[in-house]
Amino acid sequence: MENSTSARPNFFDSKVLGHPSGLFVLFFTEMWERFSFYGMRVLLIQFLTMSVIGLNPGWEMSVVDAGAIFATYAMLLYITPIFGGILADKYIGYRWAVVVGSLIMTLGHASMTLETEFFMYLGLVLLVVGTGFFKPNMTSILSEMYKSFPEKKDGAYTIFYMGVNAGAFFGMMLCGYIGERIGWHYGFGLAGIFMLLGTLQFWFAKPIFGAIGDVPNKSTEVKEETSIDTKDLTPAQQDELKRNPFTTLDYILIAITTIIGFLYAFSDVFYIVGKIRLFPAEIFGMDGKAVVVVTGLLILMWLIISRIVRYAKVVRDRMIAVIIFAFFTIFFWMSFEQGATSLIIFARDNTQRVLSGDKALLFNSSFAPIYFHVVA
Question: Could you tell me if 298 and 346 lie in one domain?
């Protein structure tokens, strides 16, 4: 499908280091967003678990409860971009999605500076919604910019992700230092200031992008309808092209497993915040939550297996490979997110946090971003 947002060759007339100036607008916008994201991320678990008594008090939650809140927040960060990408692609365009997401995230950071229970949770909700609009559409703009120049795309993404890791490094260092030494709300506030800076920068630089990322013009969309003559194909190739539509039972099972999954994901947070139980205490004398979750997993496994066996062998083998990779990806991201929870607590409670005569609580957390920055 081709539309008016395609990159034009003259877009490269204004170059910086061999790339269009728009790349560096995206570079700094993403850098400031990552500054705010990682700056807040590294403070949250500490603020929730720090003692209510002291010069810089927190909420004195248990590590388990604080970890459950962060886990739900992190989960939603990976779900909302699906919907933000759909809305941008079909209705509001990539650029407006970035602007809307940036503004919502700025409000989220501002809300968290108040440190009350209502505004802290409201801030997390706003950050989740804002990330859904912002995150998928920055890279979509970048991809559109280089549509006519695929040979330069690898270099562009390398530069772009240098900004990601630079922002993560400085965000954790500065917000962490200020949050610990001066006050948590100052750390949250600094994250919000840089998010606002990224928003203003992108807004004033919008003319640089021309029609790239603009609101989709449905009147100019061209739907490609291709028909393939299967007469000259082998039986195996014909099987590969066959569709495997979802049945009514498939949709019902998908709905059931999705509902159970979301109930499980939100169950701890609902109980921590409002003492609301989403699962019965007992089912047949066993733990109700465990029974429902195991039932959901069994339904999901049956659904996956029943779907796979309906495909041709070639497609089936590919799907099995994807499922295996997806399964192990879970453990990678589970380990990665420990950098904002258990590793932060371990560094706070079990390491010597003195560097050049001054505390540097979050120094170790910054090694990965600066490493990727240098390597890039």
Answer: no
